[in-house]
Amino acid sequence: MSDAKNTTAADTRRFQLIPVENLTPEQRALTEAIKSGPRAKLASSGASKPGPLGGPFNVWLRSPGIGNLVQQLGEEIRFRSSLAGKLNELAILIVARHWTSQYEWVAHHKLALEGGLNPAIAEDIAQGRRPAGMDADETIVYDFSRELLDTQGVSDANYKAVLDRFGERGVVDLISVNGFYVLVSMCLNVDGTPVPPGTPLPLPPLAKR
Mind listing the pLDDT tens digit for each residue in 113-141? Predict the structure, then answer.
């Protein structure tokens, strides 16, 4: 697991924000695709705010062809998954903690709680603890995601638990949300994307696994 490089909310990003007027035609098309999609309906999303795109979108603008494919995949995973929103967001928090992706955690913690995740479960994950009090579905998602991230595979028992509860589509959707947010974490960590000004860093450093 990578160590968090951000220790303050200072703007440490490597990919500077691109003023809207400086966008190339390809970058402008990507920006419009993101800002006209379902992310724009979320008040907490960078896609709903005026001005330059931030977060991972700012990184993807550097390669608009890849960026457009990636944002379409993210839209499918976020808004059309067969998994309940709370479970999808739980998996995202697990990935954010694994990668110590501060921005990703801040962006999705609120969404997870709004989706019904117990704040105590999120806090345990943030502190690197196995959460107490998870329900059956949360436990299935946690065990599968945690093993996949830690070992690059899953046991027959954890595979069967997801298959029996969510079906084959659920297995694929859970793999996909984990994999997609690994990519997002990589982009954010390489960029050094800062959390919003005045926001304390939510994830403490953890010992190497």
Answer: 999 999 999 999 999 999 999 999 999 99
Q: What is the tens place of the pLDDT at every residue in 22-40?
A: 999 999 999 999 999 888 7
Give the global pTM: 0.91
Residues 6+ apart with CB under 8 A from 135: none
SS (H, E, C) 136-193: HHHHHHHHHHHHHHHHCCCCHHHHHHHHHHHHHHHHHHHHHHHHHHHHHHHHHHHHCC
Cβ-Cβ contacts under 8 Å for 69 (sequence gap 6 or more)? none
The residue-averaged pLDDT of 82-110 equals 97
Q: What distance in Å separates the CA atoms of residue 59 and residue 66, rounded to the nearest whole number? A: 11
**DSSP-based helix, strand, coil % in the chain, nearest 5:** 60, 0, 40
Calpha distance 95→79 (Å, rounded) = 18
What distance in Å separates the CA atoms of residue 174 and residue 162, rounded to the nearest whole number? 9
Distances 2 to 72, 174, 176, 187 between C-alpha atoms, Å? 27, 22, 21, 13
What value does the CA radius of gyration of the chain take, rounded to a whole number of Å?
Answer: 17
Confidence bin at 18 (pLDDT 50/70/90):
very high
Residue 46 pLDDT: 65
Structure tokens at 148: 């996949």
CA-based torsion, 104, 208, 91, 34: positive or negative:
positive
